Amino acid sequence: MYEGVVQDLIDELGRFPGVGPKSAQRIAFHLLNSDPADINRLREVLGKVAEGVTFCEVCGTVAEQQRCRICRDERRDATLVCVVEEPKDVLAVERTGEFKGRYHVLGGALDPLSGIGPDQLRMRELLARIGTDEITEVILATDPNTEGEATATYLVRMLRDFPGLTVTRLASGLPMGGDLEFADELTLGRALSGRRAL
Amino acid sequence: MSLYRDTGIVVRVQKLGEADRIITLITRKFGKVRAVAKGVRRTGSRFGARLEPFGHVDVQFYTGRTLDVITQVQTVDAFGSPIVADYQRYTVASAILETADRLCAEEGEPVLRLYLLVIGALRALAGGERDAALVLDAFLLRAMAFAGWEPAIVECARCASPGPHPAFNVAAGGAVCARCRPAGSVNPGAEVLILLDALMVGDWARAEHSSYPVRRQASGLIAAHLQWHLERGLRSLPLVERRLREQAGVPEAEQHAEPHAELDGPATQR
Ligand SMILES: [Zn+2]
Questions:
Q1: ipTM score here?
Q2: Does position A4 have pLDDT exceeding 80, yes or no?
Q3: CB pair distance less than 8 Å for B98 and A177
Q4: Which pick of A98, A170, B7, B192 has the fewest CB atoms within 10 Å?
């Protein structure tokens, strides 16, 4: 145990996902040896986070304005919507450079064991978008694991009776059982281009 | 380093650190086991999708300081793909896992009967030949019997006088005779008690003969009985999809037969 604020810092850092006590100590001492200007920049960013992060009113991803950069971009194909679980999955698909449509972030996957059903996710918002926008294809890009597959099953059933709407699922290039964020760009890109109708 | 091996059902997975998971299994010999699967969330992990919920697996562990560590996994039954291909089955199977996890309080305490009940229920769901809601209710009744909370169905819960009796009282422990009947008892009707009895003894011909309103009433009594005995309610039980199946022309198994064939795809063999 260190004295006072240094131990407080280590304790706080140790609460982050994936950071064990050793890593927390390493980061803490890195910060102690940092330029005060760097620490101030970090403090400003954290201050802004504490004031509240906004989510895009259309797709639900993290955004600086009411609408995110992608939903504002007129060059993106508004007929194509890629449904993902989390904002980090938007970034993962964007990194492939394969996708020119827009997104819909559900905010998670259907997981009864954690008490998450359709009402806890942005399902109704997706239905509303399909009812009003010019969407002709929905790509289901939920994680290739149990909860993600079950969510895709649910969405297929929910969307299959919409006239003129095609529902597709990422192809099987992705190894099962993992998280989408760990997929390499090549695998994820191939999965996108090889999608098929359900 | 001590190694041991057992078959088990994956009942819960929790993220640990960057890419690991804590896997909770109900095993044949050692009861509930919580163990770490290292790197399982990375694409291309040697475990692949084998340690996902509903998996019936043959696992090798080594005894760690705090948690045991999974070193090898082989699939015995891949119940997952047919279960996630149908949303109602998925919600039912989730409720089965959560119930099993909750009834199995102590790690390392053998629960062979519960293990066999879970496998039987998941196998029936994956096969898709039985009504998913009936599978759940049969499982819950027998799981409660395993826990020592078996509701009285034919005899009176209080005085054990032979039935059938018209009244049911969750707090009293099930069916009650006219003399013992506490205030607040319900009168579920003879057919509901006949269904409960059929589900308890595994008489599927009689259970499947029941009407849907009777099944819904029976489900309500079973859920109330279970919640009465559990300290906190189950998260998954309210999310179980209860559909008016008699109105749908096509059986659920046929409606959703094809979409998720990719779960069996070549990617899992990496
Ligand atoms: Zn947006």
A1: 0.84
A2: yes
A3: no
A4: A98
Residue whose C-alpha is closest to residue A105's, from A121, A129, A128:
A121
Interface contact A198-B98, CB threshold 8 A? no
Q: Which CATH class is domain B87-255?
A: mainly alpha
User: Any long-range contacts for B174-182 (C-beta under 8 Å, 24+ apart)?
Assistant: B174/B225, B175/B151, B176/B152, B180/B156
Rounded mean pLDDT of A34-45?
92
Positions of chain B with pLDDT under 70: 1, 43, 244-270
Residue B92, pLDDT score = 97
Q: Which residue of A has its CA nearest to B11?
A: A113
Q: Where in chain B is the domain with CATH 1.20.1440.120?
A: 87-255
A157 contacts in B (CB within 8 Å)?
87, 256
Is A183 among the domain residues?
Answer: yes
Chain-centre distance for alpha carbon B244: 21
Q: Quick one: closest CA in A to B261, which residue?
A: A172
Which option is the CATH number for B3-78: 3.40.630.30, 2.40.50.140, 3.40.50.720, 3.90.550.10? 2.40.50.140
Calculate mean pLDDT across residues A111-127. Answer: 96
Q: Give the pLDDT score at B270.
A: 30
Say if residue A25 is in the same domain as residue A113: no
Residue A67 DSSP SS3:
coil
Q: What is the pLDDT of residues A137-166, one digit of tens each?
A: 999 999 888 899 899 999 999 999 898 999
Q: Does A165 share its domain with A95? A: yes
Residue-range definition of the domain harbouring residue A159: 75-197
- A43/A101 same-domain check: no
| Chain A residues whose beta carbon lies within 8 Å of the beta carbon of residue B235 | 112-115
The segment(s) of chain B belonging to CATH 2.40.50.140 are 3-78
CB contact under 8 A, B48 and A176: yes
d(CA A164, CA A171): 22
Q: Give the Å distance between the CA of A82 and the centre of ligand 1.
A: 11
Give backbone dihedrals phi and psi of A49, rounded to 5 degrees, phi first: -65, -40
A35 and A80 in a single domain? The answer is: no
A164 CB burial (10 A radius; 0-12, 13-18, 19+) = exposed
Q: How confident is the model at residue A2 (pLDDT cuts 50, 70, 90)?
A: confident
